[in-house]
Specification:
Length: 416
């Protein structure tokens, strides 16, 4: 199994280009099942999760071609299978996003139930609440879940929590339902807006995305589209924190600055300099890094996907910081690993209390999930000695060319 060896790094310097967003690419790939004509997707990040989603599409009968780096052509005219195989579902939870498109396109869909995962139980009740409201019958049997409907009819759906996945799945199911669907307390993440923009290019009629109330007027069918995936705000945030933690000076290119406002704000609060340009952001670290408090929230709040990376940063800030995780109930798996590297962290329910230390030390550590892995890389950049990170397949699920991008900025990360 691959490992990363991360050497203590000099302050990072230079430019790095951010890839397309994983969390946009996955639902948009799933949505390509809805169209009957060619779809061309650009700026698709080359990641393990994207590979798995392409395998899911192929298993359902879609034609998937890789045209160039980051360019994928999909044709779903002849999809003929409504069941997602267990092996693919178990590799990636987001495979569940094909349920909405299959339900509306074929009138039926079946998949194995997504299991729990390291960051919490992650139920799917809200996805199913939406499917039921549109008229589907749900059937759970022997670990499989099926949704069936002769006809979907629009309705008003209130989400008890603004779940990203549920908003996406329900929106995709509703695009060809009869009449009007309204999703209230919908998620407002930029990836939802990107998905809706893509669906509208295919001929859907979706309004209100980016607000908490999304209106979808059903259409008879969807065609093709060409679409570029938005930049990955979490990858951008990770490199911004890398600049801060190494007291470096990094220009992060291909970003939409409005998507990373909470990260910019918290870095400034901690004493870093952040300069914004149209599609770039420059982060200059400080010798006098101050402890700041973080509370994760649905967008536009501070992203849970940046919590672990900020924890690595706060572990070497001056003073005490409190990090509260409100989105997932068990997303502190990285704490024990950071403590092995000398961080002073105490957990109290959903809060982590950090007492900043002067330095971290290298240790053998394990990437327990994708963003936890990124946090350990950041910690490794400033730890004395060589940090050995195992289980880096988690990192490969969500970061394109991570070690090359870091090398470009002067860091030494080796894959062994
Ligand atoms: C997506 C992102 C993930 C990010 C998360 C929150 C993708 C592929 N993944 O995950 O990187 O961390 O948003 O920003 O886009 N919940 C329920 N019932 C449901 C669905 C969700 O209770 O039916 C709960 C979950 O347990 C969790 C919270 O809602 O506590 C947020 O989950 P959700 O927004 O659905 O996250 P994902 O779409 O799985």
């Amino acid at each position: 199994m691959n490992k990363f060896l991360v050497e203590k790094s000099p302050p990072l310097r230079g430019n790095v280009r951010i890839s397309g967003a994983k969390n946009s690419a996955l639902p948009i790939l799933a949505a390509s099942l809805l169209g009957t004509e060619d779809i061309i997707l650009e700026d698709v990040p080359q990641l393990k999760d994207v590979e798995v989603m392409c395998e899911v599409l192929s298993s359902l009968g879609a034609k998937v071609e890789f045209l160039d780096k980051g360019v994928i052509k999909i044709n779903s005219k002849d999809i003929n299978n409504y069941e997602t195989p267990y092996e693919l579902m178990s590799k990636m939870r987001a495979s569940f996003l094909v349920m909405g498109p299959l339900l509306t396109r074929l009138g039926k869909t079946k998949t194995s139930l997504p299991g729990g995962c390291a960051i919490g139980t992650r139920p799917i009740d809200l996805h199913l609440k939406g499917f039921r409201a549109l008229g589907a019958e749900i059937d759970v049997d022997h670990g499989y879940i099926g949704a069936y409907a002769d006809k979907l009819v629009g309705d008003r759906i209130y989400l008890d929590f603004p779940s990203v996945g549920a908003t996406e799945n329900i929106m995709m199911a509703a695009v060809m339902a009869e009449g009007e669907t309204i999703i209230d307390n919908a998620a407002m993440e930029p990836e939802i807006v990107d998905l809706a923009n893509f669906l509208n290019k295919m001929g859907a009629q979706i309004k209100g995305v980016g607000t908490s109330s999304i209106k979808i007027i059903g259409v008879k069918e969807l065609g093709g589209a060409t679409h570029s995936i938005i930049p990955d705000r979490i990858e951008a945030g990770t490199f911004m924190v890398a600049a801060a933690i190494t007291k470096g000076d990094v220009i992060v290119e291909n970003v939409i600055t409005s998507h990373i406002k909470p990260v910019i704000a918290k870095l400034r609060e901690s004493g870093c300099e952040v300069w914004e340009e149209e599609d770039k952001v420059r982060v200059i670290g400080t010798e006098d890094l101050k402890a700041v408090d973080i509370k994760t929230l649905p967008y536009p709040g501070f992203p849970t996907d940046m919590q672990a990376q900020f924890m690595a940063l706060m572990s070497v800030a001056k003073g005490t910081s409190v990090i509260i995780e409100t989105v997932f109930e068990n997303r502190f798996m990285h704490v024990d690993e950071l403590k092995r590297m000398g961080a002073d962290i105490k957990i109290d329910g959903r809060s982590a209390i950090l007492q900043g230390t002067d330095s971290l030390m290298s240790a053998p550590v394990k990437a327990t999930d994708l963003r936890a892995g990124a946090a350990l890389v950041l910690a490794g950049l400033i730890a004395d000695g060589v940090t050995e990170i195992s289980d880096i397949y988690h990192i490969d699920r969500g970061y394109e060319d991570m070690e090359q991008k870091f090398a470009q900025l002067g860091a030494k990360i080796y894959r062994v």
